[in-house]
C-alpha cells in the first residue's frame, strides 16, 4: 500500500543521493588529478628551460663557468661538501676506503674483475685495549686469521694489500664461472661445478655447430687455481671422450693452453 | 570511462615526478661539475656564513652542521691519503647521461701515489637492475711519467686494456711503496 510505496520512494531517493555523492567525489578526484598534472607539467617545462639556459651559458663561456649572481656562502660550502664526497667516491674506486674513529678503524675492500666493480668486504679493527679484528664480512674460506697473525699489528698495509689480493682473486674466479654460465649455457652440460673458494672448476662442454652432435659434450675440463690471489688457473686438464675423433683430441690440447692464459669467457669467445 | 582517465592521469603524474627528479639532479650535477671554488673562497665563505646566519637556522642546517660536515669529510680524506699514499691533486667529473637506471660520468683525475704521478681519464657506467647497482669502467686512459720503466709500463697497459681501474690503483700502490722504499734506502747510503 501507501507505506510500501513511501518506503520505495525513500529507498530510491537514498540511492540517488549516494550515487550523486559518488559522482561528485569522482569528479572532484578527476579535477584534482588534472590540476596536479598541469602543475607538474609546468614544473617540468620550467626545469627543461632552466637546463637549456644552463647549457647555453656553458657553451658561451670557455673554461670555468660561474653563476652570474654571486653564489651565497652556503652554496659555496655545499659545493665543497659535494666535491669532497666525490673524492671519497674516487677512493672507493681505488679498492680501499676507510674511516678512523675513536674506537678503531673501519675498512671497505672493493673487488673488481676487468672493468666491473664487484663485491665489497668490510673489516672493523679495534685499536684499544688491544689490536684485534672486531667484525668482518670476509668469507670463511679466505685465510683471514692466518694473514692477521702474519702481518698484524705491525704491518697493517701489507695485511690489507694481501687480503685484497685474496679477495680479488676469489671474486675474479667466481665472476668468470658466472659469466661462463651466463654467456655460454648452450655450450655447457649443466652448470660448471666448483668449490666455495672457486679454485677448482670442472665442466663438460661442446662447441655448437662444429661437426659433432652437440647434445653429446665431448670435452671435459678441469681447472685448478693454485694461487689464491690470481684469477687464472695454474693447472688445466682438458680431456676428450676416448671414442672421440682425433681432431677433437688435438683441439682439447689447444683448449687447455687457452684456458691457462685467458679468462674463461674470453677463451670461449675465441673457440 | 572515468576510472581509465583517472589511471591515465595517475600514470602521467608518476612519470612527471620521475622526470622532474631526474632533471633536477641533472641541473644540480652540471652546476656542481662546472663550478670551482678555491680554498681561499671556501674559507671566506665559512667565515661570512657563520656571521650571516647567527641565530637563523629555521629550515636549513645550522652553520655548525655544515662546518662539522666539512671538517668530518676533510678528516676522512686526510686519513685515506696518509694511509694509502694516494694524493689526488685534481678531480673533475661530468655527467654525460642520466636516466632512471643508468648514469654515465666522465672522470678526469690526477694525483700521485707517494712520488709517482699519474693522470687518468675514464668513463664510469652505473646501471641499476632490480636492486643491484653495477659499476663498470670504460675508456680508461692512463698517463704516467715513468711509463718508460718496463715494470710500470707492463701493469699500465694490462690494466688499461681491460679497463681494470682498481687493479691499476692496487698495482700502482704496491709499486710506489716499493719504489719509495728503494729510493729511501739509496738516499741512506749516499
From TrEMBL, chain A:
CDD domains attached here? DRWD-C_CENP-O, DRWD-N_CENP-O
Q: Where found in the cell?
A: Chromosome, Centromere; Nucleus
Q: Which Pfam families match?
A: CENP-O (PF09496)
Arranged from A to Z, the UniProt key words for this protein are: Centromere, Chromosome, Coiled coil, Nucleus
Stretches of the chain forming a coiled coil according to its record: 6-57
Q: What superkingdom does the record give?
A: Eukaryota
**GO cellular component terms listed in the entry, alphabetical order:** Mis6-Sim4 complex; nucleus
For the keyword Ubl conjugation, the answer is no
Q: Which family does it belong to?
A: Belongs to the CENP-O/MCM21 family.
Designated name of the protein: Centromere protein O
Automatic annotation (TrEMBL), chain B:
Q: Does the keyword Cell division apply?
A: no
GO BP, one example? Answer: CENP-A containing chromatin assembly
* Domain of life where this protein originates: Eukaryota
Q: Which gene encodes it?
A: Cenpp
Q: Which organism is it from?
A: Ptilonorhynchus violaceus (Satin bowerbird)
Record keyword Heme present: no
Q: What keywords appear on the UniProt entry?
A: Coiled coil
Write down any Gene Ontology CC term: chromosome, centromeric region
Give a Pfam family name: CENP-P
Q: What is this protein called?
A: CENPP protein
Q: Which residues form a coiled coil?
A: 6-33
Amino acid at each position: 500500500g501507501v507505506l510500501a510505496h513511501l518506503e520505495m520512494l525513500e529507498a530510491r531517493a537514498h540511492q540517488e543521493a549516494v550515487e550523486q555523492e559518488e559522482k561528485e567525489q569522482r569528479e572532484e578526484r578527476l579535477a584534482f588529478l588534472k590540476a596536479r598534472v598541469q602543475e607538474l607539467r609546468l614544473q617540468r617545462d620550467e626545469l627543461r628551460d632552466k637546463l637549456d639556459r644552463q647549457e647555453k651559458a656553458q657553451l658561451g663561456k670557455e673554461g670555468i663557468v660561474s653563476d652570474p649572481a654571486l653564489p651565497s656562502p652556503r652554496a659555496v660550502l655545499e659545493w665543497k661538501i659535494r666535491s669532497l664526497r666525490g673524492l671519497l667516491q674516487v677512493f672507493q674506486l681505488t679498492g680501499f676506503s676507510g674511516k678512523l674513529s675513536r674506537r678503531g678503524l673501519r675498512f671497505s675492500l672493493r673487488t673488481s674483475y676487468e672493468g666491473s666493480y664487484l663485491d665489497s668486504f668490510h673489516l672493523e679493527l679495534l685499536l684499544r685495549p688491544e689490536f684485534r679484528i672486531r667484525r668482518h664480512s670476509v668469507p670463511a674460506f679466505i685465510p683471514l686469521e692466518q694473514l692477521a697473525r702474519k702481518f698484524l699489528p705491525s704491518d697493517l698495509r701489507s695485511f690489507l694489500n694481501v687480503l685484497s689480493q685474496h679477495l680479488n682473486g676469489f671474486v675474479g674466479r667466481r665472476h668468470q664461472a658466472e659469466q661462463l654460465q651466463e654467456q655460454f649455457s648452450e655450450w655447457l652440460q649443466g652448470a660448471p661445478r666448483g668449490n666455495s673458494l672457486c679454485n677448482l672448476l670442472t665442466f663438460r662442454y661442446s662447441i655448437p655447430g662444429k661437426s659433432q652432435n652437440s647434445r653429446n659434450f665431448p670435452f671435459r675440463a678441469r681447472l685448478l687455481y693454485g694461487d689464491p690471489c690470481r684469477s687464472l688457473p695454474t693447472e688445466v686438464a682438458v680431456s676428450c671422450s676416448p671414442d672421440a675423433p682425433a681432431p677433437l683430441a688435438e683441439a682439447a690440447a689447444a683448449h687447455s693452453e687457452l684456458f691457462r692464459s685467458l679468462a674463461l669467457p674470453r677463451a670461449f669467445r675465441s673457440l | 570511462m572515468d576510472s581509465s582517465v583517472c589511471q591515465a592521469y595517475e600514470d602521467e603524474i608518476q612519470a612527471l615526478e620521475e622526470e622532474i627528479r631526474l632533471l633536477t639532479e641533472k641541473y644540480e650535477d652540471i652546476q656542481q661539475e662546472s663550478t670551482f671554488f678555491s680554498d681561499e673562497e671556501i674559507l671566506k665563505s665559512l667565515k661570512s656564513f657563520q656571521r650571516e646566519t647567527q641565530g637563523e637556522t629555521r629550515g636549513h642546517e645550522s652553520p655548525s652542521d655544515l662546518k662539522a660536515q666539512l671538517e668530518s669529510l676533510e678528516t676522512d680524506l686526510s686519513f685515506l691519503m696518509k694511509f694509502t699514499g694516494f694524493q689526488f691533486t685534481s678531480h673533475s667529473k661530468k655527467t654525460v647521461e642520466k636516466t632512471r637506471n643508468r648514469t654515465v660520468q666522465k672522470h678526469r683525475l690526477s694525483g700521485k701515489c707517494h712520488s709517482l704521478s699519474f693522470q687518468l681519464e675514464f668513463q664510469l657506467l652505473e646501471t641499476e637492475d632490480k636492486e643491484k647497482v653495477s659499476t663498470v669502467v670504460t675508456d680508461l686512459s692512463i698517463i704516467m711519467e715513468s711509463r718508460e720503466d718496463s715494470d710500470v709500463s707492463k701493469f699500465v697497459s694490462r690494466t688499461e686494456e681491460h679497463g681494470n681501474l682498481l687493479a691499476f690503483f692496487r698495482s700502482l700502490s704496491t709499486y710506489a711503496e716499493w719504489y719509495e722504499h728503494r729510493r729511501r734506502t739509496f738516499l741512506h747510503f749516499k
